[in-house]
Amino acid sequence: MQLRHRPYTLELKHAFTIATSSRTTTPAVLVEVERDGVIGYGEAAMPPYLGETQETAAAFLRQVDLTRFADPFQLEEILPAIDAIAPGNTAAKAAVDIALHDWIGRKLGAPWYRIWGLDPAKAPVTSFTIGIDTDEMVRRKTREADVYKIIKVKLGRENDRAMI
């Protein structure tokens, strides 16, 4: 198995503001696991307030040697070994985990809900987070997020009441 990774930057449609900071991008790292002509993909998104960076993720990922594992399906062996390399690095570790799961799904030609025997219609509802903004911009973002059943609105500034 080969592991590759490369940094990139997610450009946000709107500035994302929380009580302590604001940003228009999110650093990320794309992880690829390849074997037998199949590539599985994973992503490590690293908002600055979580403490990981593209550089720390890359440094961790350079230590991951998947060639020592005979079978990508042996997740019970592979994932603890990756976790034991170093503490922390949760985004990078998750990206490898996701890439391995994606590889398995692609190799089997089936999505994970089918592999696990789950009904996608019964999947938990996900939420959409709207950062702190003007009341008009929060209304606009809310309209854009109309496909989500749960909206989470960040608060923590003097205009909280107007936003809600």
Can you put this structure into words, describing what you see?
By secondary structure, the chain is an alpha+beta fold. It has helices at residues 54-61, 75-83, 90-108, 112-115, 135-144, 160-163; strands spanning 2-18, 21-35, 38-45, 127-130, 150-153. The strands form two sheets. Strands 1-2-3 form a three-stranded antiparallel beta sheet. Helix 5 (135-144) links the parallel strand 4 (127-130) and strand 5. The longest helix has 19 residues, at 90-108. It starts with a strand and ends with a helix. The model has no long low-confidence stretch (mean pLDDT 95).
List keywords for this structure.
single chain; alpha+beta; 6 helices; 5 strands; 29% strand
Query: Percent of residues in beta strands?
Result: 25-35%
Q: How many angstroms separate the termini?
A: 50 Å
Overall pLDDT score: 95
Oligomer: single chain
Shape: globular
Largest sheet: 3 strands, antiparallel
Number of helices: 6
What is the tally of beta strands? 5
Poorly predicted ranges: none
Radius of gyration from the alpha-carbon trace, in angstroms: 19 Å
Q: Percentage of helical residues?
A: 25-40%
